[in-house]
Amino acid sequence: MSGALERTPLHLLLDRHPCVGDFLGALGLDAGDGQRPLGDWLRHLPDEELFDAGMAREQMLAHIQRLIGEVEDMARASRPLRSLTLLGGRDKSGQAENVELEVRAGEVVCIVGPTGSGKSRLLADIECLAQGDTPTGRRILLDGQPPGDERRYAPDRKLVAQLSQNMNFVVDLSVRDFITLHARCRMVADVEGMAEQVIACANGLTGEKFSPEVSVTQLSGGQTRALMIADAALLSASPVVLIDEIENAGVDRKRALRLLSGGDKIVLISTHDPLLALRGDRRLVIRNGGIAEVITTGDGERDNLERLETLDGLLMDVRDRLRRGLRIEDRLEWPH
């Protein structure tokens, strides 16, 4: 590529790759009328300007080439993911799953099954974008195509964000500083505004609100999960979000699900909670380590969900009263 790059007129290069113009401008270098090829422009660049830039001509050419490649990689990684397809493998007995499931952006799929049935293994297969190289033999396609190694293993452009049951921070930053740092890494236009939005959203999901100035290491389990859900929904570039048992975190499940599904992300949730399972568009039933059934949530189930949500609201009210030290002595009126 370097030969073709050297022969490219500078004005075309700056037009196709604005990052090159930003780079030269940061070094105080003048591209002139831009009619010269890049290689010729570099050869005529005065030595004192190269000295001020701290680079030799060959280094500058290599840096420009690398910069173009990195920006193009970022652009490819940021293209919207329209679908994720799960190609079945085998269960613990070696029986084929016979499943080909396409999940489209904006969908929520719940994973249900007894403890130890293989729900977390399925999430792990999706998280690593398995290509028949895990114990289940499953394969994952992105927009109908197998992901290349650069998409599977790039640490700075992960396609899948996973929120596990146990999450701990290893940095001692305030919540504001932590989210602000992530926003800067994502190069959002309004860093402070985005940080405030994420924190406000997280406080709307958790029962006990927290200050933006508190250290992330001092957050409770529920507060940590709420912060990471808000971050994944509003700030993370990962188009796929995996959640393992959100019901155990004291998070407003209905609001969290609405938040995640409203951002054109592909969401898969492992759960034992009937309310969460029925809120999903579909649910995968796991038995003996394999996908035994794929169920689309029906109209009757949606009707029953409304009744269950009414009952859940009453239970949440009782829980809140107990947390505040109130007594529960009056007769409770349950819906019929």
UniProtKB/TrEMBL annotation:
Pfam families, A to Z: ABC_tran (PF00005)
Domain named ABC transporter: residues: 81-314
Keyword hit for Nucleotide-binding: yes
One GO MF term attached to the UniProt entry: ATP hydrolysis activity
Entry keyword set: ATP-binding, Cell membrane, Membrane, Nucleotide-binding, Transport
InterPro entries hit by this protein: AAA+_ATPase, ABC_transporter-like_ATP-bd, P-loop_NTPase
PROSITE patterns: ABC_TRANSPORTER_2 (PS50893)
Family membership: Belongs to the ABC transporter superfamily.
Name listed for the protein in its UniProt record: ABC transporter ATP-binding protein
Organism (species): Pseudothauera rhizosphaerae
Upper taxonomic lineage: Bacteria, Pseudomonadati, Pseudomonadota, Betaproteobacteria, Rhodocyclales
